[in-house]
Design brief:
Blueprint (H helix, E strand, L loop, with lengths): L3 E6 L1 H14 L5 E5 L5 E3 L2 E3 L1 H10 L17 H8 L10 H15 L4 H11 L5 E4 L6 E6 L2 E4 H7 L6 E7 L8 H7 L4 E6 L4 H9 L2 H8 L5 E4 L2 E2 L2 E2 L4 H8 L5 H8 L5 E4 L7 H5 L4 E4 L7 H17 L2
Parallel strand pairs: 1-2, 1-9, 2-5, 9-10, 10-13, 13-14
Antiparallel strand pairs: 3-4, 6-7, 6-8, 11-12
Helix pairs in contact: 1-2, 1-13, 4-5
Bound molecules: ligand FO1.
The site of ligand FO1 has 16 residues, from helix 2 and helix 6.
């Protein structure tokens, strides 16, 4: 695989493949652009869940049980907040809290979300570039049968129960790509864009919906390959399958190919879904069958190598 790689990621699946790519690529060859549509201000703190999940995962400190936050976490702060009658629906662990407080201080000093991310990732010893998709606010709003819900209200407070009708990304029209994302897109050595196995509706859509990014993808001269987040008719983690059902999409690797259409050149699907290959290829999307469920860091490295080889073959 020649050239540099731009990975688009959000959530647990995205973070795992980003980790696999970081393990197999030199720091200068990988940029991970992360969804910020899930971000919100909570108790005066700037929360960036997908940036933190990617950062903690690349640092080897992610909480594998919850899929978010930090491993070996303690909850004294939350307990004390509860005792004082504060909000406890969105749980902030003691170690995780330090990240939000540090991000607050950096942003209050007038620095950008990109600069905050560089500082935090650097402090965690991460050598690969993790960048927010934009330094301007983009907020995902979930249109449900109970009306519009800010993303975290839908995802955490309501546990994804309301029926989804559509998604809105407030601020996306005015959202320029972050400097790191712009640099990756305009890098003459860019060899491929990898869309990680993240939720296509709420983790990937905000990134590829940024006008400059959408234009790049439509006019691209490098392969864009995605990894299906749906395996065997189910989401590996999270509400993607439930959303697809509610939106009337087929809950399968074919449904993912139909969602992305020819905005992607190739789709990596799991071995259990190999039967979908002809129908996906009929859409004009190349197929790579590979083990796509990442249960270990070795699995993530294997999938990263498969995805890079797949993209290389499409150049
Ligand atoms: N998800 C939950 O289901 N419950 C929580 O209390 C919760 C707290 C939390 C704190 C920090 C953080 O970075 C993420 C947190 N998440 C929690 C996950 C978060 O809602 C999701 O990671 C993303 O927004 C969706 O990928």
């Amino acid at each position: 695989m020649a050239g540099t790689i731009l990975a688009l990621a959000g959530g647990v699946g995205g973070a795992k493949l980003a980790r696999g790519l970081a393990d197999v690529l030199e720091p200068g060859r990988l940029t991970v652009a992360v969804n910020t549509g899930d971000d919100f201000e909570h108790m005066g703190l700037p929360i960036s869940p997908d940036l933190d999940t990617v950062m903690y995962t690349l640092a080897g400190r992610a909480n594998k049980e919850t899929g978010w936050g930090v491993a070996d976490e303690t909850w004294s702060f939350m307990e004390a907040i509860g005792d004082l009658g504060g909000e406890t629906w969105f749980r902030l662990g003691d170690r995780d809290l330090a990240t939000h407080v540090m991000r607050r201080r950096i942003l209050d000093a007038g620095k950008t979300l990109s600069e905050a991310t560089d500082a935090l990732a650097g402090a965690l010893g991460i050598r690969h570039r993790i960048v927010p998709m934009s330094d301007r606010p983009v907020r995902t709003v979930v249109e449900t049968d109970e009306g519009p819900l800010p993303f975290q209200d839908y995802f955490v407070r309501r546990r994804c129960e309301p029926r989804v009708a559509a998604f809105r990304f407030e601020g996306i029209e005015a959202a320029a790509p972050s400097p790191g994302l712009s640099a990756a897109l305009s890098d003459p050595d860019l060899g491929a864009v990898v869309i990680c196995p993240s939720n296509p509706y709420v983790s990937v859509a905000p990134i590829v919906g940024i006008p400059t990014v959408a234009e790049f993808i439509d006019a691209r001269d490098v392969p864009v390959v995605a990894v299906s987040p749906i395996v065997g008719g189910r989401a590996v983690k999270g509400p993607a399958a439930k959303m697809m059902a509610e939106l009337g999409a087929e809950i399968s690797a074919l449904g993912i190919a139909q969602h992305y259409g020819t905005r992607i050149d190739g789709l990596a699907i799991d071995e259990v879904d190999a039967g979908f290959a002809p129908d996906i290829e009929a859409l004009g999307v190349a197929v790579r069958v590979a083990p796509t469920v990442m249960r270990s860091e070795e699995d993530s490295r294997t999938l990263a190598r498969e995805t890079l080889a797949f993209a290389d073959g499409l150049r």
